[in-house]
Design goal:
Elements lengths: L1 E11 L9 H9 L9 E6 L3 E9 L3 E5 L9 E2 L4 E5 L5 E7 L5 E9 L2 E2 L4 E10 L4 E3 L2 E6 L5 E11 L6 E3 L2 E7 L2
Parallel strand pairs: 1-14, 1-15
Antiparallel strand pairs: 1-3, 2-7, 3-6, 4-5, 4-13, 7-13, 8-12, 8-15, 9-10, 10-13, 11-12
C-alpha cells in the first residue's frame, strides 16, 4: 500500500480584492473623490486550501470535495483508499460590491498539476454558487448587486492511479475575479 498525502492550494489574485473600472475612477476624480460604487470585494472564509487528506492508495480511484455539499469533507472511493486523516470541505468565498444596478462578474481559473516532484495526480475543479453560474469549464459569469452578493464554493475531484507514488502532492488553482 502507498501512503499519499495530498494538499491543493488555491491562490485568489490579490489585486482583485478591490478593483474598479476607469469610467467610475474618472467620475469620482471629477466629483472630488469618493467610493467607487462598482468596486468588488472578495472575502475568503473557511479552509485556506482544498485538502484531500492523507490516505493509503489501495486500488486508486477518485477522492471528491463536493462544492454542492459544503459541510462535508473529502469523500473517497472505499475500495480504492483507506483514509488516514480527513481533509477539509470546499473553499468558500463571497464576491460583493456596492452597486445598486446589477453587475456582471467574471470568474476564471487555471489548474496546475498536483505533483510530488516525480509524479502527478489528476485534478478537476468544480464551483457552486448562490448565484447562477453560466459559462464553460474554466470561465464563469454571474451577476451581483448590493443586496445579492455571490457565495461561491470551490471543490474538486482528485484522480489517483493505482500505481501512484507516495508523497506530498501540491498544486495551484489560480482564480481571477473581475468585471468587464
Amino acid at each position: 500500500y502507498n501512503l499519499i498525502w495530498s494538499i491543493l492550494f488555491i491562490l485568489l489574485i490579490p489585486d482583485l480584492y478591490a478593483q474598479s473600472d476607469n469610467a467610475n475612477d474618472n467620475a469620482d476624480n471629477n466629483n472630488g473623490g469618493g467610493t467607487d460604487p462598482f468596486a468588488l470585494t472578495v472575502t475568503a472564509s473557511g479552509p485556506e486550501s482544498l485538502n484531500f487528506g492523507a490516505f493509503v492508495n489501495v486500488n486508486g480511484g477518485n477522492i471528491v470535495i463536493d462544492p454542492f455539499l459544503p459541510n462535508n469533507g473529502p469523500i473517497a472511493d472505499p475500495t480504492g483508499f483507506v483514509m488516514v486523516k480527513n481533509g477539509s470541505g470546499p473553499l468558500l468565498f463571497e464576491v460583493s460590491n456596492q452597486a445598486t444596478p446589477f453587475k456582471v462578474v467574471n470568474l476564471n481559473y487555471a489548474v496546475t498539476p498536483l505533483s510530488n516532484g516525480s509524479s502527478n495526480l489528476g485534478l478537476t475543479v468544480k464551483f457552486n454558487s448562490s448565484r447562477p453560474l453560466t459559462g464553460n469549464p474554466t470561465s464563469y459569469t454571474f451577476t451581483i448587486n448590493q443586496s445579492n452578493p455571490a457565495t461561491i464554493y470551490m471543490g474538486g475531484t482528485l484522480t489517483v492511479a493505482p500505481e501512484a507514488l507516495p508523497g506530498t502532492y501540491t498544486g495551484n488553482v489560480s482564480v481571477t475575479i473581475d468585471y468587464p
